[in-house]
Amino acid sequence: GRAARDVEALLAEAKLGGRVAFSVMDVASGAPLEGHGTRTGLPPASVTKAITAVYALDTLGPEYRFGTRLMTDGTVRDGVLRGDLVLAGGGDPTLDTDALADMAARLKNLGIHEVRGTFRVWAGALPFEREIDPAQPPHAGYNPALSGLSLNFNRVRFGWKRNGSDYTVTMDARSGRHRPEVRVARMALADRRSPVYTYRDGGSHDSWTVARGALGNGGARWLPVRKPAQYAGEVFAGFARAHGIVLTDPAPQRGRPGGTVLVTHRSAPLRDILRGMLKYSTNLTAEMVGMAATARRAGRPASLAGSAREMARWARRELGLAQARFVDHSGLGEEARLTPAATTAALVAAHGRLKPLLKEIPMRDGAGRIDRGHPLTVAAKTGTLYFVSALAGYITAPDGTELAFAIFTGDTERRGAIDPSRDGRPPGARGWNRRAKRLQQALIDRWGRVFGG
């Protein structure tokens, strides 16, 4: 086969600017094999989620299931619930509209047709955060609010269709089988070219405007929800009423609810949730499972940042992840820092738990096409922000040799010059990212040739 390319030649060819740092280790012995800037701290972006996955798995266990409950402090007689009905969130990041529809049907099947008390919603199992990272544009669907009750990844679907000289707009909470329209998020058309979206807190609802000139003939996009408890409450109440159950509009439940559990919806096992999180890089899932792990370990965290600090302490102690700095559990906040040496050591320590959850990263040829005949298998987590690209995981060579690696690239100066209020990708970011990914592939190919048996 071809000879392995020289590291310096690969770095020069990538023309990345900023900093490139990497480390590769033998999984069986833990011996470091090659590195460059191994103690340089760079933003890990979504590689953070790999650490979060191990944190949640270690703390809660692979079979753990989140529960969302309908509870009451009252009694049921002749189909009438005398007392309050509480929809109590249990931190399930995967709760969707179909699940709430199912819970309403199960309530009806208990013979309940009226709630005499107040319908309440409790989201206090986890701290409320208006957004994951304040530096993101207001309409970024990957940056929603967080709380102990989340619906549809705390996103609402905004749809629009040209209707003569105007538009018909919808805001709905769709999932697999249902698409109820909601009032907790509202959209108004504005006669302007830009900004495309504006957001303000409307008190009882999220108040959005969109630039009419940006809409074209029709389309849809997911927008973040900033009032997650009200969102879930409105959607559940709609299904309950459709079943003929009389109940009030949702009101907040202040303290942790007690009393009788009427209905419980259970999530899939944690290991399946984590596999989905790593495959689709879902920020909300990472934040909620990370905070749930902290709550189990150290009591309910006061904030997302506090939970991230707790995870960093755990990672230093349990995985040898020295100098770890986390500001969240998803990697969205750019202030996080990991070094390649510590990250690879942590990957070696977590190998048996983490590797089965990671998705396969295909190897590509020089033209960027997937190379199905490539001898190496790579299971890893990607991390991408504008002018930041990271990849960390495991390489398996044909002879069974396993390597752990971490590659961090970042041009923090170019990243710092970005205006977050501007919509769209900053100039130069796409080409930079493409070159960073090509470098990752070239380094992995090199390591396979040099260290893969």
Summarize the helices and strands and which ones pair or pack.
Blueprint: H1 7-14, E1 19-26, E2 32-36, H2 48-60, E3 67-72, E4 75-77, E5 80-82, E6 85-88, H3 97-109, E7 114-115, E8 119-122, E9 155-163, E10 166-172, E11 185-190, E12 197-201, E13 206-211, E14 218-224, H4 228-242, E15 251-252, E16 260-266, H5 270-280, H6 283-298, H7 304-319, H8 340-354, E17 359-360, E18 377-385, E19 388-396, E20 402-410, H9 412-416, H10 429-451
Parallel strand pairs: 5-7, 6-8, 8-15, 11-13
Antiparallel strand pairs: 1-2, 1-20, 3-6, 3-16, 4-5, 9-10, 9-14, 12-13, 17-18, 18-19, 19-20
Helix pairs in contact: 1-10, 2-5, 2-6, 2-8, 3-4, 6-7
Describe this structure in words.
- 30% of the residues lie in helices and 25% in strands.
- It has 453 residues and is α+β, with helices and mostly antiparallel strands.
- The strands form five sheets. Strands 2-1-20-19-18-17 form a six-stranded antiparallel β-sheet, sandwiched between helices.
- A hairpin with a 5-residue loop joins β19 (388-396) and β20.
- The longest helix is centred in the C-terminal third of the chain and has 23 residues, at 429-451.
- The chain is globular and about 80 Å long.
- The two termini are 14 Å apart.
- The mean pLDDT is 95.
Ranges where pLDDT stays below 50 over 5 or more residues in a row are none
Strand order of the largest sheet: 2-1-20-19-18-17
The proportion of strand residues reads 15-25%
Main sheet attributes: strand count, strand direction, barrel closure: 6 strands, antiparallel
- Overall structural class, as computed from helix and strand content, comes to alpha+beta
**Total E-strand runs:** 20
Mean pLDDT figure: 95
Q: Helix and strand succession?
A: HEEHEEEEHEEEEEEEEHEEHHHHEEEEHH
Radius of gyration: 24 Å
Q: What overall form do the CA principal axes indicate?
A: globular
Q: Summarize the amount of helix as a percent range.
A: 25-40%
N→C terminal distance: 14 Å
- The number of helical segments is 10
